[in-house]
Structures are given as structure tokens and as C-alpha cells.
Amino acid sequence: MKDLFDNCKFGDLNLNSRIVRTGLWESEREQPGNFTPEIYNRYENIAASGVGLIITELISLYPRDIFSKYSHTTHFKQFVREAKDLTDLVHLYDVPIFAQLGFVQFNKHAEQNMRVEDVSIEDIRKIQTDFIIACQKIDYAGFDGVQIALGNYYFLTRFISPYFNKRKDKYGGNTLNRLRIVLEMIKVIKETTKLHVNCRLNAFDIQAGGMTMDDTVEIAKLLEKFGADSLQITRPRSPQYFSKENIDRTPPEFVSRKIKKINPLIGECEKIIDNVDIPVILGGGVNSKSQINHILNNSKIDFVSMQRPFVADPSFLIEWQMEDDGESKCKMCNNCYWKKTSTCHINRPATWDVSSTDF
């Protein structure tokens, strides 16, 4: 029997549990870009809670991106030094930490939110170079891995989707060509850093003419072939999709009805697991210990990511380790999403003082 608090392997990494914390975006940085004491405290509470792997909130590739005024950016001149303090803190609890790196819009001079087909070869080389340099900074800062944002509606997500990518050159057309911009980056990242490369990938598009499940499987196989070490499966409108109103709608056809009601992505995730030999993380939609253990023991899934429960209470896993059927305080209301602060506006739990608590 598998349990969410099993010690387990994740590629070359050792995890203290099967729970992966993934983030929204940081919102408590100081105006110039410095990390605040609240950020360090948040991550220490999460690391001390029993989590297996931490994936940070979005770190913006470009300071002019849509989330840049809320999120950290590798362009901040003290990023490496302050991020190193953060990774050292998390590593005290034997927890690996990945940096989620991405950008939503590509802006060039006065041109804002450029379409995929309007991006030149020189622009592609700039994006790739900027991404690789950012990964080298992430490596210097002590992160164990990087998560490349290929899910939701980030720019690279649109680049690999046939709905958005109408290019006629070697970066458009078939699946390999649309993914080429990412595969070329992964190759260099693996050659120049020690980072574990994780890719956050949509299971499918919601637009007609977009990525199908078969396209996603092909993309997953190509990512593995070209050096990706693990995948996290999400969907375009996550976390908005995972709400009380949507969670029981239209389950996929791959698994039993009881499991499908817990998380509609389970079937898609299993299909990808059948086609790759790297770890695959189920993204979002679960909020209780019994749900997760049911998934682990009635599907092929070994790792589950959680986002909003850690916003509601960064230390909830401590209680779960002591309770037979722990349940998150998260109401799945999404009031923490698309706000200036990635905090829970319903539950305001007291912060654990990890420095004075005997774990």
C-alpha cells in the first residue's frame, strides 16, 4: 500500500513524501525586488510540514511581464544571493526545491504580447538565451531543479499549441517543430547546469484545433527524449477549473467513476505515465488525506501536487501526519487567485513558529 507520507525517489532526488507543493506567484516582495521575511517564513513552514518537493511561485523571466510586479524576477541584481538564503533554509529540512520559471507575454520594445507567428528567429534566440542564463542563475542560487512553464496560458504553452502556432518555418507545423524552441533550451540547460528539469504541461487545450491528448502524449515523449527529468500535468484554466462547481463535471473515460470524481485529470495523467519512464505529477484538485491515498492506491499515480491548500495554511501537513483523515481548510473558492496578494482571504491561520517547535 502506498501512503502520501512515504519516503520515495523522484528521479535522482529523495523525497520525504509524495506531496509536491506548487505555487501561484509571490506577492510579498519589497518594491525593489528583495525577498521579505514573510517569504522566508512561508517557505520554512512549508518545508517543515512534511512536504516532499517544493516548486516555487512563478519567477518571471522578464521584468516587464504581466506578473512581474507581483513575482520575483531573475533580473533583480540580488536575486542569486537572496534566493540562495531561501534554498539553504529549505534544505535544512532535507526538502528539494525547484524554481518555477516562465513568462506569459513576449514584449519587444513597443510591441506588446506578440503573437507566436510574429516572433522572429532572432527573438527566439533571445528567448532561449535569456531562459538559459536565468537557469544558470537558478543553479547558482542552490535550487535543485527548474520547472519550465509549458502549461496554462504562458507564452511557451501557446508556442507549442497548434491553435496558436501558425508558423511556416522549422518552429511551426508538426509537434516536433512547435516544441523545438523548448527542446533546444533543455539540451543546453542540461549541459550547463546541474538542474533537474521539470516541465509543467497542459493535458490538452480547450480550444477546437488545439492540443489533443494524443498531442500531449507525443510532447511528453519528446520532452523525455531530449532531457526532461519529470512532468507536472495541469490544464489551461487551472486552478479556476478546480472548484466546488466543476470538480464533478465530465470525468475522463480512463479510470473508475469514484476516482474520476476526485480529480478529472487522473485519466490523462495515467495515459502519460503509460508512455514515459520519468516521474509524472498529478496537478491540482485534491484537498484531503483520504482522497490522495485513494488516488495513490487505485491508479498509477505516485505524486500529487497541491497549491491552494498551502495558501490557506502552509503547515497543514503537520496536522495530516497526526490525523487519520486530515482535510485542507481550502474552500476551493479561488479568492487567492488573480489577486495582488497570494494569500487566503477566508482562512487566516496562525503562523507556525518553526524555530520553537519540536518536529
Q: Quaternary status of these chains?
A: single chain
Radius of gyration: 19 Å
Side-by-side strand order of the widest sheet? 3-4-6-7-8-9-10-11
Q: Label the overall shape.
A: globular
Distance between the termini: 25 Å
Q: Count all strands and give the number.
A: 11
| Main beta sheet strand tally, sense and closure | 8 strands, parallel, barrel
Structural class: alpha/beta
As a percent range, the share of strand residues is 5-15%
Question: How confident overall, as mean pLDDT?
Answer: 86
Q: What are the low-pLDDT stretches, counting only 5+ consecutive residues below 50?
A: 238-257, 349-359
Helix proportion of residues, in percent? 25-40%
Count up the helices.
11
Q: Strand-and-helix sequence, N→C?
A: EEEHEEHEHEHHEHEHHEHEHH
Summarize this, please?
The chain is α/β, with parallel strands linked by helices and 359 residues long. Helix content is 33%, strand content 14%.
Describe the SSE topology.
Elements: E1 8-10, E2 13-15, E3 19-21, H1 37-48, E4 53-60, E5 72-73, H2 79-91, E6 97-102, H3 121-140, E7 145-150, H4 155-160, H5 175-192, E8 196-202, H6 213-225, E9 230-234, H7 257-262, H8 266-273, E10 280-283, H9 289-298, E11 303-306, H10 308-312, H11 316-322
Parallel strand pairs: 3-4, 3-11, 4-5, 4-6, 6-7, 7-8, 8-9, 9-10, 10-11
Antiparallel strand pairs: 1-2
Helix pairs in contact: 1-2, 3-5, 5-6
